[in-house]
């Protein structure tokens, strides 16, 4: 990677880090990256509101290859001292999306100079953290006849600079599920005159271990209770409203769907038994991220050709990524590059993206651009 391009990419990363914006609020971030690309490339810019993409139109135009970066931040306070630290209290780039975006922008500078036999699309996406960014941007695939799409994520706990690849599911599907129940209030001394949802919610909680039993599923299935809220601290009132919020997660979407259906069926059954109203809410929905073997093989080939250290990811990450919305529509692969085995974990106060990974990721992307 050209030193000038790397320096510009690192500078951009620091500017993005200082101005973090939460999911679906990335107004300054998007415009700043657009201005960066306009100042340093001649690419076509297609502004789609909360997201955008740039296009390198090849004089050869053999294939349409896309590369994606996310640019939203997290509601986490910046507590470490950085010369480019977050200027916004309670918001910071603690997942490295500033680095992902700087990588894609740096890659754009390289393609501007070297060109490619393929048409290259640079997709800059909002709202990855909430799972709805890629769901909105997925129209990009068919609208541009994208043949293949790639992306990467920095990953702590793995050797520094090593590229990790996996065929098939690399990240689990997940969603936030809330079951709300409503009965009838009564005086605490006369509970028989009311309908309390506590017992129905307790039955749901009690059933969870059986629903996620490994022997009943072909892959990992999890149901993590994040909140239970029943009634109020009023000792004269029999509770009449309650809810349970869970993160449901599975290696395979079909098993996530089955877990959701089982929980809904159980909740409806218990609601009917006790005479309760029941409703369901969902948010932060992520598909499984499934890599195409042919696309993953190209990452392996690039690493071998460029002498980049590479390893096979032995099992899928439990975490989720919305990149799976794209690979439902075209071939693609999502790889990982290690931050270091003892480096602070993502979404922690101590974390900051490692700038030297930009060059590694750009070199991978440059190799893929010619495949």
Top-tier CATH class of the largest domain: Alpha Beta
The number of domains is 2
Question: At the fourth CATH level, what is the homologous superfamily of the largest domain?
Answer: Zn peptidases
Shape: elongated
Number of helices: 10
Q: Assign the CATH architecture of the largest domain.
A: 3-Layer(aba) Sandwich
Give the helices and strands as they follow along the chain: HHEEEHEHHEEEEEHEEEHEEHEHEH
> How far from one another are the termini?
18 Å
Segments where pLDDT lies below 50 for 5+ residues? none
The biggest sheet amounts to: 8 strands, mixed
CATH topology of the largest domain: Aminopeptidase
InterPro entries: Amidohydrolase, Bact_exopeptidase_dim_dom, Peptidase_M20, Peptidase_M20_dimer
Domain Peptidase M20 dimerisation: 174-273
Protein name: Amidohydrolase
Organism: Neobacillus kokaensis
């Amino acid at each position: 990677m050209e030193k000038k391009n790397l320096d510009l990419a690192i500078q951009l990363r620091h500017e993005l880090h200082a101005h973090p914006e939460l999911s679906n609020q990335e107004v300054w971030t998007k415009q700043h990256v657009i201005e960066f690309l306009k100042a340093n490339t001649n690419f076509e810019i297609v502004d789609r509101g909360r997201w955008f993409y740039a296009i390198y139109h090849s004089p050869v135009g053999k294939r349409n290859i896309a590369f994606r970066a996310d640019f939203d931040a997290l509601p986490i306070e910046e507590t470490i001292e950085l010369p480019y630290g977050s200027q916004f209290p309670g918001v910071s780039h603690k997942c490295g999306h500033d680095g992902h975006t700087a990588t894609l922008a740096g890659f754009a500078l390289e393609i501007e100079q070297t060109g490619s036999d393929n048409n290259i699309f640079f997709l800059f996406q909002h709202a990855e953290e909430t799972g709805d960014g890629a769901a909105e941007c997925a129209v990009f695939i068919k609208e541009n006849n994208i043949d293949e799409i790639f992306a990467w994520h920095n990953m702590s706990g793995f050797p520094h600079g090593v590229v990790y690849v996996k065929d098939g599911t690399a990240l689990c599907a997940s969603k936030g599920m809330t079951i709300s129940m409503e009965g009838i209030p009564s005086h605490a001394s006369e509970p028989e005159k009311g309908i309390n949802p506590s017992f129905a919610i307790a039955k749901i909680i009690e059933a969870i271990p059986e629903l996620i039993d490994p022997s009943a599923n072909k892959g990992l299935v999890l149901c993590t209770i994040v909140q239970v809220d029943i009634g109020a601290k009023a000792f004269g009132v029999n509770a009449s409203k309650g809810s349970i919020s869970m993160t449901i997660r599975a290696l395979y979407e079909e098993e996530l769907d089955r877990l959701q259906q089982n929980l809904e069926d159980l909740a409806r059954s218990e609601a009917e038994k006790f005479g309760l109203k029941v409703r369901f809410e969902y948010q932060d929905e992520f598909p499984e991220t499934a890599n195409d073997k042919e696309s993953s093989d190209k990452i392996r080939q690039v690493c071998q050709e460029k002498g980049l250290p590479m390893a096979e990811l032995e099992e899928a990450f439990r975490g989720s990524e919305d990149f799976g919305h794209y690979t439902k529509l075209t071939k693609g692969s999502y790889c990982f590059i290690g931050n270091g085995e003892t480096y602070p974990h993502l979404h922690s106060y101590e974390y900051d993206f490692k700038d030297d990974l930009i060059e590694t990721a750009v070199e991978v992307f440059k190799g893929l651009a010619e495949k």
